[in-house]
Each structure stands twice: as structure tokens, then as C-alpha cells.
Amino acid sequence: MAASKPMMRLFTNRDRYFKAYETFVVYSAKYEHQDTCTKTVLDKIVPHLPNLDQDNELRVLGVGSGSGKTEFPFLTALLKKYPIITNRVVEPDEDQIIKYKALVQTKGHELQGVKFDWRQQTLEQYRDTDGVGTKFHFISAIHSLYDVEDIDSSLMYLYDLLEPGGILISMLISDLCGMWKFWSRTSDLCKRCSHDMLSSFDRHDIPYVQSRYPCEMEITKCFDETSEDGDLLLDFCLQVSEFKKTASASKYKEVIEYMASSECSKKDGSKILMSIDWETVIVTKPSN
Ligand SMILES: C[S@@+](CC[C@H](N)C(=O)[O-])C[C@H]1O[C@@H](n2cnc3c(N)ncnc32)[C@H](O)[C@@H]1O
After folding, report:
1. Chain segment 239-276, per-residue pLDDT in tens
2. Which of 98, 204, 206, 248 shows the greatest Cβ crowding within 10 Å of its Cβ?
3. Does domain 8-284 have CATH number 3.40.190.10?
């Protein structure tokens, strides 16, 4: 029987990562969940952001913004209170920035007053080039800290980048959901979940407000060995590139069986669903 080949982290194969991510977006109805979650989150954030003089701009930083679909409703909600916004976008993937720019172009009329400042960089590269030169009133890192080199120092850096009274929101998968159980037991690669973010703020005695949003993803296709969507979803759940091609037959069987177990998923008629709950942390920097 063929042995497993070394596993490659999904994010190091960018094309496959974004294909897998887009498949995940479809089968998890990510943006529908995101819309509900964003509305709830914004109700908690916007009233508490600092008051600025009419001529002053609100400085916003997006970390790992992807195609901008998640940040777009943030910006439109912020525009209602702040007519002038500078939005710095730190996103390492060129194609994602191209998609974000296309979104800005099509939705331009809804984004009047927002000036974009594009940085095609990882957060680590941004830190090396800009340090804490510019401070921000609002920072979002939505599902984008899974692949940073060091989550604790990344979060503390983002906290340092806040203006007094500024607000940081970060979102990661909850360590209480089926996807986390699946991911943590089946892959040896470095993993991140909400617990890492909460323990980082706890260690530094930084208060936060935490919320959990229940979500599910349909994983039925993962059990169809002929399905390309199934392979992509499996890669996304494991954060491994081309798992089916790389794993030995016995490892593949073990992983699929565990995925079908009640620890990770449940049946709903002919569908199989996996919980992928999100956890959000909102941190407000004390005003001077
Ligand atoms: C799962 S996607 C989320 C995209 C978007 N925030 C959303 O919720 O739709 C993760 C994003 O983080 C970006 N990313 C990965 N590593 C990063 C890093 N070290 N610094 C900044 N962004 C990173 C990826 O390029 C990708 O666009």
C-alpha cells in the first residue's frame, strides 16, 4: 500500500487555496451568514467609535480583506456616521486585490467618500515596512489570521495600531465546532482557532467582547470520491493541498470516516452537515 507523501499547507498553493475557499463559500453560504453576523457586529461597534470633527477622516485598516465582500458592508455602515474614510487594505494576494478593486468600481456610488490605499502585503510585510506609523480608528481581521506567522504578536501589533478609543474586530473559527474537531485531530499542520485569539488577549489583560455565530456547511460531496468540489472542500477543512492525492489510502479512509462521525458532522435527510461556528472578538482601546 502506498505511504502518505508529505502534506503541503493549503495556503502555500495559492491557486488551490482560493479555489477551495470559493467552494467553501458556496457550500457554507458564507456571505449569507456573514451578512447577519456583520449587521449584529456593526450595531455593537459603530455607536462606540470615536467622534471625529466633520473634516476629519476615519482611518480604517482591513487585514486579509480578500475580495472585499465582507468589508463592503462595514464601509457602507461606517459612511453613515463618517463621511470621509481612508481604507487601507493589507492583502497579500494580487487576484483578491483585483477582485476588491472591481467591487469598488461596480459599487462606487455606495462608497463615495472612501479613499482606498492598497497594500499587496502580508501583515508581517506591512509591519516591516510601516511599523506603527499610521494609527487606525477601526481595524478588521475577518477569518484572516489562520496563516500569520505568530498570532499573539499579530494581535498585539494590531492593538498597537489602534488610535485611543479605536476598535479592533477579529473573527476565527470556534474551537467548539465540528470543523475544528475534524481539523485538529486529522492534520498535524499548525492550526488557529478562536481559543488562540482569546487566550492572547487574556494573557495581555486586554478586555474584549466575545460572540459566537452558529454556522453549518454541507459536506455531502466530500463522501463522493469522484467529486472535485468534494476534494476541494476536504482540502479546505484540513487546510492541506491535494489531500486525496497525497494521503495513503488508509489515511484517506481514516479521515473520511472521522468526518462522517457524530463528533464532526450530522445527517439532515440526504445531506451531511458540519458545524463551522465563528467566534468574534471586539476590542476597544481605552481613550487617553
Ligand atoms: C479565508 S480568506 C478571508 C477573506 C475575507 N476576509 C473574507 O472574510 O471574505 C483569508 C484571507 O487572508 C489573507 N491572508 C493570509 N495570510 C495573511 C497574512 N499573513 N497577512 C494578511 N493577510 C493574509 C489571504 O490572502 C485571504 O485573502
Report:
1. 999 999 999 999 999 999 999 999 999 999 999 999 99
2. 206
3. no
